Structures
1.
Amino acid sequence: MIEEYYKTINLTVGDPMEKPQRIKFNRFIFERCFHPQMKKCEESGRVITLTEKDKKHLEDFATKKAAAKTKEWKGFDNQMRAKREMTGASIEYAVLKFYGKQDKFDDSIVDKSSKKNYPDLVPLGVLADVKGSSINNVPLVFKKTRPYVVPTGKHKGKEFKCVNIIGITDHEKVWLLGIASQAVLEKYSDTNLIMIAENTTKTGFYGALKLLELPKTWIEFKKLCLEKSTPV
């Protein structure tokens, strides 16, 4: 699919695209790869509806987090930052709500982001990060996932590259698309899917059709994330 698309615009896979080309490429991939996976979520009950109470909680958190990051890093557009924080928080919250664990959502605010420089679900004993995007936009993931040293428990001291839980939201609902292993994250990514600007650490993810479905129980979820995370 990717090779064929590049041929239609007379480029070789990986050749840099201009912004208008990136936007069209992003839309093409979302329609072909993400919409079918969203349909599967609807059929299997992996769509989480955010209540008004949920949204108010997440909006307050996103606003406070954006304000904290604006103080830490000058020059950010606070309004756009708040929207991005809302997107990320909504997907993480929805993963927890899927398993009845929404009360475990970490809404604390820190003055330095380095204090929370670990995969999102690790504090809950799950070797997984959460990534996603607003609807009709391809999610961004790290080009190279940094290994994480497990601080406590059975795997204390061991290093892992964690799986990513991929979701899509319109801020009313969240489609929990599935679990991406490190191999899938690396294989199904393209920097031309970043629409607005170059990003030295992120790349666009298009492997929605290669994701593992979220298990039904929290225990199975933790086990699968451990099995699919990559030991270093």
Note: Residues 67 and 227 are 37 Å apart (CA to CA).
2.
Amino acid sequence: MKILVRSKGSKEWKFAESVRTKAESELQRLLVESPSLIMIDEIREGVSPLIFALSEFGLPGSGATDIPAFSSEGDVAIIECKLAANPESKRKVIGQILEYAAYLWHMGYEEIDSRIKKSNGKSLSELVEESVAAGWDEELFRNGVKKSLDSGSFVLVIVVDEINEELRRIIRYVNECSQSAFSLHALEMNRFQADKTEVLVPHVYGISAKPPAGERKEKWTEEKFFDDLGKRNSPNTVKIAQVVYKWSLDTADRIWFGTGAKIGSFTFHYLKEGKTISVFTIYSDGKLMINYGWLSRKLPSETLEKFHGMIHKIPSLRQIPSDFSKWPTVRVEALKNLENLEEFKKAVVWLRKRLES
């Protein structure tokens, strides 16, 4: 491949010389700095662009994968870098990347989050949030990652400086002849340089039409949610949820329906400076979840403690602990008493006033 470059305003074209990648760490660095170099949304249908990647994420019993990467909606990619000169760039790398995927499969979000926080000092959601524009939905991301882990619907990418025919043939076979949840791809990174200008030409192999993580993209609707709620619960539970939902429509900045494959949900959101404040969620299996785990990352500790104090005074919610790293859950029936329901509403409205102050 020949590449010609010239400076803006110049009439002279110069040949860019091919740059040989000396170490796999060079490829790792490029992709951690710019995970969007992997045009993941173009090679696998329904997957969102990668926006954040980690270097050397340790896995139990399986060493450390080069790069795990994430999209804003919770798609998960596993990236392994190999040089053409490395004999492992052929067959062995396939076994390595599948081994990494097998260890990630069914791993809990909390375990991954804990490992990342231990090595980086920040949680996964905090690191991702730093890489996205305003309006990112942490709840959607967290649920998306969970579903990717549960289903094993990973995008596996082997990054090489030069692809060989054997690797290309294996990738085509895996994607076209299997019904697996994951998809396998290769990214060839050709680098060139002319004077002080560096050119990078990525070439992806292995386009796949496999859908990501089951039904993650399909959001529930009001009609579908309450229909499922009615099938699973008593008429009294449905009535309470309807009252809370109608009040939420008038009070929240946004009602967000979930994307669960089996259980529906709607979440009460406030918005502040483009950031989502997720307060509580009601599920179609009749559960009410107080989103302390998310609130603790967005609110001052004093505000969260006062909010919990108001929640804790409600007799039917008194069992909710003050562990703000958790997402405590009770039955929707906990709000069947009108007085308890009104106190719950007051606490949520109080939270808005604190956000506005």
Note: The longest strand covers residues 183-194.
3.
Amino acid sequence: MSLRLPHTIAAIGTFALGPVLLGAQRSPNVPVISVAGEGPETVVLISGLVGGVDGFRRLEARLLARNHRVIIINPYFLSIDSADVSFDALARRVDRVLDSLAVTGARVAGHGHGGGVAIRLAANAPERVSALYLLDMGASAVNRSPVFSRSVRLIPLIAKLPGGRTFIRKRFIRGLGESSGHDAWLDAETKRAYTEPMLAEIDRVIAMALRLALAEEPDPLPTLIRRLRIPVTVLLGAAPHTAGPTAEEMRALEPLGSLLRVRHLPGVGHFPHEEAPDEVVRHLVDPARSILLSFTEP
């Protein structure tokens, strides 16, 4: 999970994307964008608040095996020092990255709050997206979580205490388990991949989290949903778990009508791409077959 491939852009100011983030200073230890494969079809994976680029490695490996080009973007670390961290702003930065890579007509999947970024990308840059997939996420009106915003204020104090970082790491990993349908995916390498980037940049992460709590969106959510003219598939974890979309976030997608498909994945929690990557790939690369199986499988 912590593998650094040659095509991973760890320091975003280098490679061909330097103009995208003029003046931004990125951590060389945290991958922000990964580009892999040379297949004829492109899949773009957009991470949420946790997981980042490494959180999609299981899914990436399966998509590469099916001859897809795979682009993974962590819009939060991409914007970690930015003043505007609204969904709209993050989507604009993702759009500039995709433009620099000449991406059009891609299948785009967003996990958690990354789904909010993906919705704005599809609504405001429709040429980039041919189909949209939301992983355990509905349609969020704002790029913030009240619980996250409140609890994050305590982290700087805890981190400075003896053993504070160890406590934060353990509590974070426990939260991953509570958000999952099962914890078989949480091996030692995965735990490091999810926790070390946060701990390595904890002050900047906290500062960004506080900006997220104040971020406002320029466009009302119903306006954005009306702009979508592509299939939207929501893959929900069916196992009891914390996180996941609210009923309001799911209702916000209902105006899509026949463009909307909602699938429940048995035994899966908030991390479908980690807990059931083969199932997610089936929906991503063979949607017609996945619809048929949803009517025939128990």
Note: The two ends are 33 Å apart (CA to CA).
